[in-house]
Design a protein that fits this description.
Layout (H helix, E strand, L loop, with lengths): L2 H18 L3 E9 L2 E12 L5 E12 L13 H17 L8 E11 L2 E11 L1
Parallel strand pairs: 3-4
Antiparallel strand pairs: 1-2, 2-3, 4-5
Length: about 130
C-alpha cells in the first residue's frame, strides 16, 4: 500500500477509535504554514457547571512494520515543536476559546496482515 494511503487509513482508524471512546472530533488534518495536526478532539466537552473539557492535539503515526522502531518514535522534538505552534494557531482562530486542559498525544497505528492495531499514548509531550 502506498505511504499516503497507509497514513490516511491510519488516521481514519484513529478517528473512529477516539469517537468510540466518546471524544468529539473538532478537526482533521488542520494545516498551517508551520505544520499540521492530524486530529483535534474534545474529551468531556461540557463537564459539570459548564466547564470546558480537555482538547487533545493528536499526531497519528502509521507503519506497516516495526523494522524502524515504533511509530511514535518518529515524533521528534522538532515535530513536537511544530505541533505545539500549530495548536496555538488553531486556538487563536477559535471564536470562543474556552478550553480546560490542552493535551498532546500520539496514536500509533500498526497495520499488519490487513488489520490495524492502535496504541494511544496520552500526554506524551508538552
Amino acid at each position: 500500500m502506498p505511504r499516503q494511503g497507509l497514513g490516511q487509513r491510519g488516521e481514519t482508524a484513529a478517528a473512529s477509535f477516539l469517537q468510540r471512546r466518546g471524544l468529539h472530533i473538532l478537526a482533521r488534518n488542520y494545516r498551517w504554514r508551520e505544520g499540521e495536526i492530524d486530529i483535534i478532539a474534545a474529551e468531556d466537552p461540557f463537564r459539570i457547571c459548564g466547564q470546558a473539557g480537555t482538547i487533545r492535539f493528536i499526531e497519528v503515526k502509521t507503519r506497516s512494520s516495526d523494522r524502524y522502531g515504533t511509530p511514535g518514535a518518529a515524533v521528534t522534538f522538532g515535530k513536537q515543536a511544530r505541533i505545539r505552534r500549530t495548536a496555538l494557531k488553531w486556538l487563536q482562530e477559535q471564536e470562543h476559546p474556552v478550553f480546560g486542559n490542552l493535551c498532546f498525544d500520539v496514536i500509533e497505528v500498526c497495520v499488519l496482515d490487513g488489520r490495524a492495531r492502535l496504541r494511544w499514548l496520552k500526554d506524551c509531550f508538552f
